[in-house]
Amino acid sequence: MLKTVEIARELTEESVRGLIERTVDVIHVPGFYPKDLSAEFSDRVAGHSELEAYKVQNALKRLGMGYVDVGNDDENAARYHSAAVRSIWGIRDLVYPRMTPLDHFRLLLEEVWTPGATIQVIEGKKSFVGTCRVIEPGANMLPHNDRLARMLKDGNSGLTGQIAVNVYLDMPPEGGELELWLSEPTPEQDRIQATTDGLDRSELDAPRLIVRPANGDLVLFNSQLIHCVSPGVGGRRVTMSCFVGYRGDDKPLTYWS
Residue 14 in 3-state DSSP? Predict the structure, then answer.
């Protein structure tokens, strides 16, 4: 028998730990960022000259290179890390002197998690944090999971848990929901994702949880479990996002994009 879905409405140490331990299925904080600032921020992101498509998930565009695009390529890794801090500052400038929602989240995470939180370091170099993503209406995404170790050459991240973080700046009138299967991929499905955009939806059961965020909402979920975004209708979907890595209750959390 499947357990009852558990949704937390606050970002606390207990709710974050619940995502890792799978006693909480999603953290959904309505109104985390003001709607008027969300609208202004999303317009600036969607109209930015440096907005470009992902190499893996090419159905969406992003501002700020994600580590998923490194692809075990040394040149891509050098590009990612050399631009990491500068890219954080560049996105921050879009709303300065106000705070971006991810900066707000990072401060709260450091405060609620007893050992604190800090930027993820990969091969001795700082990571970028705060990718802004634009999904146009009708874009068809594939179910997938996110796991940092899959993207590293040695396949070892040192993480025992990974959380996805999204702040919703603009949602379409219909669609664009977060779909959660609440299950891990099989080893074969994990291997498939190393070379493809995701999994064949027809081979999966229906998602167990569908979350419909509003503009300005914060949503966290366990990214090691299968998830997807339904196609939007009548408008774009704009988010600011990152991942959070867990190594144990006595260790700082880390974040990256």
Answer: helix
Is 81 a member of any domain?
A: yes
Q: Confidence class of residue 57 from pLDDT cuts 50, 70 and 90?
A: low
Which residue carries 């998602």 as its tokens? Answer: 207
Residue 234 falls inside a structural domain = yes
Q: Are strands 61-63 and 52-53 parallel, antiparallel or unpaired?
A: antiparallel
Contact criterion met (CB below 8 Å) for 57 and 141: yes
CATH number of domain containing 230: 2.60.120.620
Q: Residue 232 and residue 56: Cα distance in Å, rounded?
A: 20
Evaluate if residue 154 carries a pLDDT over 60: yes
Report how many domains make up the chain.
1
The answer as to whether 1 is a domain residue is no
pLDDT tens digits, one per residue of 62-121: 999 999 889 888 999 999 999 999 999 999 999 999 999 999 999 999 999 999 999 999
**Which sign does the torsion angle of CA 94, 92, 55, 109 carry?**
negative
* Residue 2 forms part of a structural domain: no
pLDDT tens for 112-148 read 999 999 999 999 999 999 999 999 999 989 999 999 9
